[in-house]
Structures are given as C-alpha cells and as structure tokens.
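ARCHIVE ENTRY
Sequence with per-residue tokens
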Amino acid sequence: MIEFTLPTMTCGHCVKAVTAAVQQVDAAAKLQIDLPTHQVRIESTRPAAEFQRVLADEGYAAA
C-alpha cells in the first residue's frame, strides 16, 4: 500500500484529478481517498515514485 498526504487536494474536482493521474500510471490500481485528511492510499505493484511524479505534475505534491 502506497500512502501520500496531498495538502492541496481540497475538493471533488481535486479527487477526480488525483484519480485520473493515478490511473495514468496504473489503470488497475485500487484507490482510497480521504478528502478531509488529504490522504491517498494506492494499491498497486508500480513504484511509489511513479505516482508521486505524476501527482506532482498535476499540482498535488505529496507532503
């Protein structure tokens, strides 16, 4: 399980953007998002760095 805190993820639009970014890396990834705490959990066999890079490119840098 890969976990990130994304402080700039604050709304439903952000959730959609984060979901799309994760699916770019791994379309089969399982994703859990807790918007109030800005937490994202990703279940995937891909390296965490790939998700971190694509999320940062979308404006959601992990803290």
Observations:
- DSSP finds two helices and three strands in the chain.
- The radius of gyration is 10 Å.
- The domain at 2-57 is CATH 3.30.70.100 (Alpha-Beta Plaits).
